[in-house]
């Protein structure tokens, strides 16, 4: 009996390298505007001087975070939480309106991939030339082009890592250390780690980060509906596809507007065919729109065979005005109102934030004791945090504790953007202690700039022994 031989089944396909075609057009210009804006912001902020220091500095060693005129402490972590919530709702809002705008224009993966592809084009040429170069045997031409490309990628990556560390270590001091290779172990690690991560993600992984590593691609469908603007191929206008001459009569040929040139697929950085409909891999970079519009112009057909549209607009052949009306639907309005409320609360909280922070810690070694004249004394340690960049003298008083006083009422000087621990003794007259009775009694420390209204009230307790 003969046995049948079966072919092996491979569960994992080797990753096919994608060679994106460079395109020019309206959306391409906007992508490059965003590249310049985001990189000018990222690379430039650490070098911007402000009040005698750099404008944005997260000084982890001193536990100070400087953002222009703001001086934040670890106790202000709530503002980071608010910023993250604000960013999340902003992402929900813009995704519900127009899909993956963040991915297509401002995501660091997209931005650095665009930069690295530009470098690749300069060294290796357009799509066809790059494919031929990769297939060719190694020679001098291939060696210098590949070496030059990778060397430039590494420089960009390391400069990115250097700029990233410059947000945590004063960048001018870091720049001086770079010439002597005097980085500390922390700086060495993060400059190289972040630089090599940029080099690997933008130079090699590229679309694989968007398709397999980024969680946004997986849950974006929860924020989409049939009235979300997405990159869409107009099937009713484009089908059936087929080649034809320039200016050919579509009605006579029985063909749609799509000439099946494949430029939309060649321009796509993730290698999908947008004509197959909405796909989670699409990062909404709009390269396919520019490529298709260019071909439509050459054929003297109307632009917009691939365009921003909604599924309902394509199915019902809705015009732009009607499509825009349907964008303002309940989901978008709710996201927008919540986003405005969070932004208003965040802004108001920052504007009304006190310029001084106070932490009160009881002296555990001396809970309560009886001192001269029978007075009851409690010792406290106060941390005064000056959240301004001017020296301040603070006055401290107590509230809510009858016949109690601070032993030393002299003002306390705190340097700009510094925190200072001070010890205070609070005493209560014996007759007042007898009336209050033994136990813990709540009161408040009040702290303010000397000669001005009190700014902060911090709760504590005064212990009267039995």
From TrEMBL:
Ranges that cross the membrane: 30-50, 77-98, 151-168, 188-205, 332-352
Keyword Metal-binding found: yes
Gene encoding the protein: ccoG
Protein name per the record: Cytochrome c oxidase accessory protein CcoG
One Pfam family it belongs to: Fer4_18
InterPro entries documented for this protein: 4Fe4S_Fe-S-bd (IPR017896), 4Fe4S_Fe_S_CS (IPR017900), Cyt_c_oxidase_cbb3_FixG (IPR014116), Electron_Trans/Redox (IPR051684), FixG_C (IPR032879), Helical_ferredxn (IPR009051), Ig-like_fold (IPR013783)
Keyword tags: 4Fe-4S, Electron transport, Iron, Iron-sulfur, Membrane, Metal-binding, Transmembrane, Transmembrane helix, Transport
Domain 4Fe-4S ferredoxin-type stretches: 249-277
Key word Nucleus present: no
